[in-house]
Every structure is written in C-alpha cells, then in structure tokens.
From TrEMBL:
This is GDP-fucose protein O-fucosyltransferase 1. Keywords: Carbohydrate metabolism, Coiled coil, Disulfide bond, Endoplasmic reticulum, Fucose metabolism, Glycoprotein, Glycosyltransferase, Membrane, Notch signaling pathway, Transferase, Transmembrane, Transmembrane helix, Transport. One of its GO terms (biological process) is fucose metabolic process. It comes from Trichinella pseudospiralis (Parasitic roundworm). InterPro entries: GDP-Fuc_O-FucTrfase, POFUT1, T_SNARE_dom. Residues 60-87 form a coiled coil. Gene3D superfamilies: 1.20.5.110, 3.40.50.11340, 3.40.50.11350. It catalyses: L-threonyl-[protein] + GDP-beta-L-fucose = 3-O-(alpha-L-fucosyl)-L-threonyl-[protein] + GDP + H(+); L-seryl-[protein] + GDP-beta-L-fucose = 3-O-(alpha-L-fucosyl)-L-seryl-[protein] + GDP + H(+). The gene is O-fut1. PROSITE patterns: T_SNARE.
Amino acid sequence: MTSSKSYKYVKLDSEPSTSFASRTIEQQELIIKSQDENLEKIGANVRVLRDMSAKIGFEIEEQSIMLDDLNADLDSTQAKMATVMNKMGKVMHMSADINRSIERTISCRNLASLFLIARQWLLLLNGGGVDEYFERQIRMAFTFVLMWIGIVVFSLFILVAGHQKEIDGNGYLVYCPCMGRFGNQVEQFLGTLSFAKHINRTLVLPPFIEYDSTQTKMIRFTDYFQLKPLLKYHRAIEMSKFIRDVAPVIWPMNRRIGFCYYESSHSNGCDMKYGNPFQAFWDLYNVDFVSYEIYSKNGLTTDRPQWDLWLERYPAKNYPVLAFKGAPGAFPSNPEDHALQKYLVWTPNVQNKADTFISENLRGQPFLGVHLRNNRDWVNHFSFFCLLLSKPFGHFQPNVCQYIKPKWHLFCSSQCLGKNFEHGIMTMELCLPSEESILSQVKEAIARTGLKVLFVASEYNHMINQFTQILPKKEGYTVARRYPDHAQISLAILAKSKLFICNCLSSFTAMVKRQRDLQGLPTEFWGFNNTQTKQHDEL
C-alpha cells in the first residue's frame, strides 16, 4: 500500500498558458487580415471583370452599330449594282460567268461581316483589347474589299457607257444575203454598201451563205474579208456582234419589223422566214418579226434615184433598224459601185493560202488563170431563163440555153457586152462555151503570151487531161488545180494571174474582173472577140 505522502502536487505556471493563447490570437488575426486582403483582391477582380464586361458590351454594341452601317452601305451598293446589271442586260446579254462574278462581288458583304465577327472574338480572347497587328490586318482586309467593290462598280459603269457610245443613232441596215451563191452575194453586197452609206446607216455584215449537197452553211463575213479596209469607206458591224450588243438596246423583240418590196404569195405579209435559206438565216440569230413593211406601197424602191426618199419616209428615230428580206443592192451590181471592190480585201488566211499554192504548185511563175463555169447549178439556172425565153416558141429543152435573145442581159453579161450592148450581143458560146472553143482559146492565149503555167478553177469539170494534151509535153508546161477547189482561195489565185479568161455571164468571176480592173490587169472571156473589144475601147 502506498503512502499518501508519495504524491507531490506541482503548482501550474500561469505564464506559459497566457503565451499560447496570445500566439493563437495573433495567428487568427493574421489569418483574418490575410482573408481581408484576399477579399479585397477578389473585390478588385470583380470590379475589373465588371468593367471588362461593360467595356466588352460597349464594344459589341459599337461593332453592331458599325455592322448595321456596313450592311446599309452594302445594301445601297447592291442596289446600285443591280441597277448596273439591269443596264448591262439591256446593252448586252451577259454570260452566266459574268453574272456569277457579280454575285460573288455582292456577296462580299458576308465576308465583311465575318471580319467584324472575327474582331469581336479577338476582343474576347485578348481581354477586352485588340492587338494592334490584328487590328491593322482586319482594317486592311476590310478596306481592300470595299476598294475592290468600288473598282468593279466603276468598271461596270464605264463598260455600260462605252457600249452606249457604240450605238449608232443614225440607225442600222441588216439583210439576208439569200439570192444565189457567193458571186451573187458579193454583187448585191456592193450595192447594199453604197445604199447604206447614202442613207447614213451602219451596215450589218451578214455571213455568207454556202450550199452543199447536205446542208446550208453560214460563214462569217470576216472569215473571208478584212473589216478594217471596209471601215475606211463606211461604218459596219458583224451580224453576231450586232445581235449581241446592239439589238437588245434598239431592236427588242417587240419592235422587229421586216421590210420587203412586195407582198408574199403565201401570206399577207413579207414572209421574212419562208423557205430556205431565209428560215435558216434568221433562226441562226433567233430573230422573229412582229410586223412587216411593204415599202413598194409607199412608192419606194431601193433603186439609186429613190435613196433620198428613204431618209424622209423611214427616219432612224422611228425605224432604228431596216431589216430587209433580201439584199437591197442591185443584181448585177451597178457600174457606179464597181470601184467599191477595193474595200473587199481578202483575209491573211485566204491570201496566204493563195500565195502558198502559187509558190508550190505554179512554180512561182507568171501564169494563165481560167475559170470554167460548168457546174450543174449553172445549167439549172439557165434552164429557168430558157423556160421564160422559150414560151413564144411553144416548147422547152431543159438542159441548154438555146433561146437567149441577142440583146437581153443575163447575170453579169454586161461586163463583156457593155451595159447597152456596145461591145457585142449575147451568143451561145458566151452562155455555154464548147470544150473545143475553150481548148482553142487557151492554146491561142498561151502562144500569144508565152506563159508556161496554166491554173484552172471550176466547180465541176476542170478539164485537166484535155488541157495537158493540147500543150507540148517537151516544153515544160504546168497545168494545175486545187484539191479540193476552194472557191475563195481560187478567186484570190485567179486575181494574181498574168492573164485571166472567164465566163462573161458569171457573177463568180465578175468579182475577179473587178479586182483586176483596179490593178490594170487584163481579163478575157470565153467565146468573145476580146481583140475587137480592146480596139473598140481604145477608140
């Protein structure tokens, strides 16, 4: 058992207890102070965030206002461009590609909107501010877009103004070259060109119409002749360009009036598109006529003495386009218009092919050029005339021209006989020269001129074997033709010959004679006393 005396009581010291409490209180005060500081920082951050939110809200509101202003400006620009588009539509049929380009230009408003949206995102990502670099990039891109739109709009206005200036206030003359083949079409072109100049209208150049066994072909005027030399004489425009650029402005579909001399036997109007090649010609350009003008009822013809009356009766203000069913030029062409041949200059393509043939196939030497008008269509044409001439005799033979009248011109016969038959009369040899007379005349011409090269052009029979047989084989003669015989290239070759012999009645070779007359080169005719004619001319 333990004694109570073994327990000792120790008095607690009050100082250590007081020190612990004091330290605890100090620590709590430090914690509270730290918390207060943190709360103050949090409050400051909250105030910063509140200010940032207000600033961002202000920026967004400002950007929205800018976007609204931009949309308003672009709406105005779009309206202006729509107006330009309408004007352009009237001036020309713009292609789908151009329309899409304009639509893409107008859609740049969406691109500009994206720039502003990107700027707003940059505001958020950069804590309410925009880096100066990004700011410059956005402004430069936006400025570029506006400048591009402005340039496009300005260019369109210039383009519209330019096309408006190209419209001839004096009016236009358009026609279908629907009578005969190339030679006939050129004959009437000369008179039509003269007529257009006199009434001061721009001449619309139609394509040449060519015929083969299967189809009718339309060949652009400028595929054969140069435009620039023609413009030295008078204003002219190709048909395709006229339909594309001019017709929509001054000749809309509801104002297309057809002009003809007399009423058609098939209807009460002109029947501008009845038959071939009329239908094919106008359909090529999608032209239909809403009314007709039979000008003979107004006492008018397209003969030279009445040209001034056209200015009075059909002023350009009321009739901006005179569209003729056929060529208003005379057939055959009048002697007064023959000098206009100098404005019909072959294209480099035609001329180069002619020169190449002369160099390679005609040895580059002077040559005799002949044209044989012996195709079946020549016989068919003359069958018609023979039918008219044979009526008094009560019978008709379809394959020959046996009933020609001595003093009745056919086609271009005046080029050798003279307008009033002062150089001779119509004979069978002029109409259809025999093979014997052709060979005899060629042999005589070669002996007289000393030429060693013969070039033959024809639509049917070139008689190459016959010509070769009549020329001495040991003296180095050359007889040549083109394969195939391209009409226009052959004409260009014939125009360069030292001597040319051709059919007096043919409009095809009348063109060559006019070209040669301008250059002072001689032309002779089958079955005609050419020596007597020369003596008569000299007297």
